[in-house]
């Protein structure tokens, strides 16, 4: 049985446990994030396994601040551009039809000078750094409290392999 869900997809209720989940992204509402000019549609979240897939839309000039990709992060650019503002690839630009993935532990900030739309896939949501002592997820929730147990289980399973 799956632990994955698509929030805001009422037509998924009552489906066979092993049935496909058709996601009508165009019918889902854009959800404002706490970052100015950035909206998201969560296509899939599987908290016990630390998997998230999000359709993101960034207004021109919007910024995704300093964050660490705890596990692999993947981004496919549908429209516009995504540019690294900081980190080891500062200045690198990814455009429409291009795909980028980042290894676990990579840290940077990004912005979209002219706006854009992307599909982002994470293994365990990113850690966002606010000040010197506060580490949160994209929603602003305490990262360790919300995702730490999942990360610990994944690290233990990796060590056993």
Provide a descriptive summary of the structure in words.
With 161 residues, the protein is mainly β. It has one domain: Jelly Rolls. Helix content is 11%, strand content 41%. The strands form two sheets. It has a six-stranded antiparallel beta sheet with strand order 1-2-3-10-5-8, with no helix packed on it. It has a six-stranded antiparallel beta sheet with strand order 7-6-9-4-11-12, with no helix packed on it. A hairpin with a 3-residue loop joins strand 11 (127-130) and strand 12 (134-136). The radius of gyration is 16 Å and the shape is globular. The protein starts with 30 loop residues before the first strand and ends with a helix.
Give the spatial strand order of the biggest sheet.
1-2-3-10-5-8
- Rg, Å, rounded: 16 Å
How many separate domains?
Answer: 1
CATH topology: Jelly Rolls
How many H/I helical runs?
A: 1
What's the overall average pLDDT, rounded?
A: 88
State the name of the first-level CATH class.
Mainly Beta
